[in-house]
Amino acid sequence: MNPTPQLRPYRTTRRTLLTVAAAGVTSACVTSGGNDKPAANEGAKSAQNPLGVPADAGLEVVIFKGGYGDDYAKNAETLYQQRYPNAKVDHKGIQKVGEALQPRFVADTPPDVVDNTGAGRLDLTTLVAAKKLTDLGELLDAPSLDDPNTKVRDTLLSGVVEDGTFDGAVLTLNYTYTVWGLWHSKPFFDQHGWKVPTTWDAMLALCAEIKKAGVAPWTYQGKYPEYINDPLLSMAAKTGGEDLLKAVDNLQPGAWKQDALVQAATAFADLAGRGYIMPGSEALSHTEAQAAWCQNKAAFIPCGSWLEAEQKGVAPAGFDMVMAPVPALSTGDKLGPAAVQAASSESFLVPAKAKNPRGGLEYLRILLSKPAARKFAELNSTLPVVKGATDGLTVASGLGSVRDAVKAANAEAFAYRFRTWYAPLAKAVDDATGELVNRRVSPAQWADRIQKAADAVAKDSSVKKYTR
Amino acid sequence: MKHGRARFIAGVLLPALVLHAVFVLSPYAQAFYLALTDWTGVSGQAHFVGAGNFVRLASDSLFLDALRNNAVMLLVVPLVTIALGLFLATMLNLGSRRGLRGITGANTYKIVYFFPQLLSMAIIAVLWEFVYNPNTGLLNGGLRAVGLGRLARSWLAEPHLALWAVMAVLIWSSVGFYLVLFSAAIEAIPADLYEAALIDGAGPWAAFRAITLPLLRDTVQVAFVYLGIAALDGFAVVQIMTVGPGGPDGSTEVIGLGLYRNAFTYGRFGYASAMGVTLFFLTLTLAVLALRGGRRERLELS
User: Does residue A381 carry a pLDDT above 60?
Assistant: First the structure.
């Protein structure tokens, strides 16, 4: 469940393969390296400086310069510089974070803060297992920059701390709050008198109407089947509630064969079977499918809340896209109809062997302050993880609908964790769902093959297990 | 001066040898070692797991898909590319009526066919992704325009077509190069051989079989090795162009893609190295077989 910068095709050439070889060279000197800890680089703690940042230590910040650019990070660096005028801040805005930093992690000479995001990011669970990250607990318990009486922990939206928790320790903090749902153009719907459905039955009825009007009811980013996974798994989670999420993420036997999941799969197979998905969607990249949707060739498209920013310049003026939660499959759903799948992403971390870890933590404290978060929201029309960061801000239709959805969902924001924990399982689910919505496997076969993949992960002793 | 000469030669060779050892040989050696470990790519430690990674490969269904797909590519891509290259080279050099000169405009064709070679693989893959677009692509658009709309397909999204679509791109992108290679070899064949054959009443097919093919044997053999290695790779095109990538559902998975995914997405460098080592031996076997199988008596032109 990652926003678009991570879903983009990797655009790799053979050269990438050479880095595998090159990485081998570095390992020569490193795989034998010891575990000596550098002397703690700590300054005096005070109310002004609760984390004890050494005033003149340099700070190296590496930012993934993708869909969100890196201006927001530079802004936070300016704020850091104002607090520590003697510190030299070294900023790097790059794309292939993993390729650039992998050798530095191996050699234990990492930067002080890393925005580990994008298609080429380092695998988080691998970093965690190798104990390469600083525990951020101290930062969370430090007073926030805006209000000395509020801890940083309490300024974050629900689920953010959990998203960065591995075996009880908070090791990363994500910066953006992503909500998944179904998108449509409000004026286009108004013009036809279509109402956004809150139940699946109403969805099917509306699809029939839309199709009659000569518009394809749905399209999806077929080249990357994870996009159509999101509404399917969201619907199942709403039906099955917390128990279903736990069963799936904890790799319980038979988890994928639960009724709620099979029914959701059946619903999507049915959607495809009735011809409600735009022909050709299965081969379109995210840009192609989203462009077709912006031309009103299809009414609905599933996507995360980055969509509005991504379609800047593609969506015509007055397209006014809005996001709605995925409809409820049954009347007996355990979660309310307003519940949304939400997760934080754009993960920031402080490497364990950073030269200036205190400065790294302080940088994050600044980044998580309201002024810095608001700046981010302004620059990227994306919701940051800081509570109330967009309050009073005039926002575009899409971001407004996302903000409203988060409010309406109240505490009913849910997320699956298996994608981050077990990447190979995520691939198995994507492949299976791609086959399901192209009617090449039945819902029962879909559940079967994913269960098999989940069982294989559960059995594999070389994979570190997590539980929620 | 003998000593001076040896020293001079060593001085010239040594830097290159050192660079080669550090940047080529040592990574190879390391990959072999890493293939026997569980190295994650970021950890300072790598635990020895023996042949564990290789055992695991044997039951990795995606890797088996990749092996199958690479095998199909290995059969199809070199054969079709060489056949097309030979045909076009022959036409361009000996395609005229009397069979001694090429068809009119041969040089222009040669340049046009060579064009794809000038583009990087990444650009080719992106272009062909547009061509294969089921709704707005050139291929389906063309089929519809000539009334063959029935044949329009979702080329990259249908499991039984996707690999063929990928192979078509690989062939398209390499035919030009082999056309030029074969052309050069044909030009080196003395014209009197063809004249003599013509006088003896040989048709174009007989001349091709009796003269061109035997004299091009070495060139074709080299082409086989190169194309075989390219067919065992295919990573760039698959990664950029296909659904998933590698899909739908593993139908275009190749070894290089699995290697990349395991190393950089899953953080399993040890396992990925095992894939790399497997690929290395496959490529080596192929090269040895192709070069040995073709070692026969040489035809001397004098």
Answer: yes
Tell me, yes or no, whether A239 and A276 share the same domain.
Answer: yes
Chain B hits for A224, Cβ within 8 Å: 244
C-alpha span between B49 and B37 (Å, rounded): 5
From B126's Cα to the closest Cα of chain A, the distance in A is: 9
Query: In this structure, are A186 and A280 located in the same domain?
Result: yes
Count CB atoms within 10 A of the CB of residue B209.
12
pLDDT band (50, 70, 90) for residue A463: confident
Q: How many domains is chain A built from?
A: 2
Name the pairing type of β-strands A173-185 and A298-304.
antiparallel
Mean pLDDT along residues A286-304:
95
Residues A328 and A356 in one domain: no
Name the packing angle between helices A423-436 and A259-273 (round to 10°): 40
The string of pLDDT tens digits covering residues A179-221 is 999 999 999 999 999 999 999 999 999 999 999 999 999 999 9
Residues A198 and A113 in one domain: no
Report the run of H or E that residue A24 belongs to, with start and end. Answer: helix A14-30
Residue A406, domain member (yes or no): no
Q: A283 and B260 in contact by Cβ < 8 A?
A: no
Under an 8 A CB cutoff, do A106 and B44 touch?
yes
* pLDDT for B98: 66
Nearest Cα of chain A lies from the Cα of B176 at a distance, in angstroms, of 21
Domains and CATH numbers, chain B: 24-293 (1.10.3720.10)
Q: For residue A16, is it within any domain?
A: no
A384 phi/psi in degrees, rounded to 5: -85, 170
Q: CATH number for the domain including A149?
A: 3.40.190.10
> Same structural domain for residues A294 and A365?
no
Contact check, Cβ <8 Å, B121/A13? yes
Question: Is A401 inside a domain boundary?
Answer: no
Q: Do A106 and B239 touch (CB under 8 A)?
A: no
The pLDDT of residue B297: 55
Closest CA to B262 of A327, A345, A427: A427
Q: For chains A and B, count residue pairs whose Cβ atoms are closer than 8 Å.
A: 159
Q: List, for chain B, all residue ranges whose pLDDT scores fall below the cut of 70.
A: 1-3, 97-99, 294-302
Are A32 and B45 contacting, i.e. CB atoms less than 8 angstroms apart? no
> Per-residue confidence at A278, pLDDT binned at 50, 70, 90?
very high
Q: Is residue A28 part of a domain?
A: no
Where is pLDDT greater, at A212 or A468?
A212
Query: Residues 6 or more apart from A211 whose CB is under 8 A from it?
Result: A217, A275, A276
List, in sequence order, the alpha helices (H) in A31-132.
71-83, 97-106, 124-129
The whole-angstrom distance between A101's CA and the closest CA on chain B is: 9
Same domain, A257 and A273: yes
- Has residue A59 got a pLDDT over 60? yes
Helix (H) or strand (E) segment spanning residue A370 = helix A370-380
Cβ count near B9 (within 10 Å): 10
Report the candidate in A226, A128, A212, A229 with the shortest Cα–Cα distance to residue A170. A128
Q: For residue B221, how many C-alpha atoms fall within 13 Å in the half-sphere facing its CB?
A: 16
ipTM over 0.90: no
Domain, as residue range, for A439: 179-342+417-459
pTM for this model (two decimals): 0.82
Check whether residue A296 and residue A368 sit in a common domain: no
Residues A288 and A423 in one domain: yes
Q: Which residues of A touch B122 (CB under 8 A)?
A: 11, 13
Mean pLDDT across chain A: 88
| Chain-chain contact of B42 with A126 (C-beta, under 8 angstroms) | yes
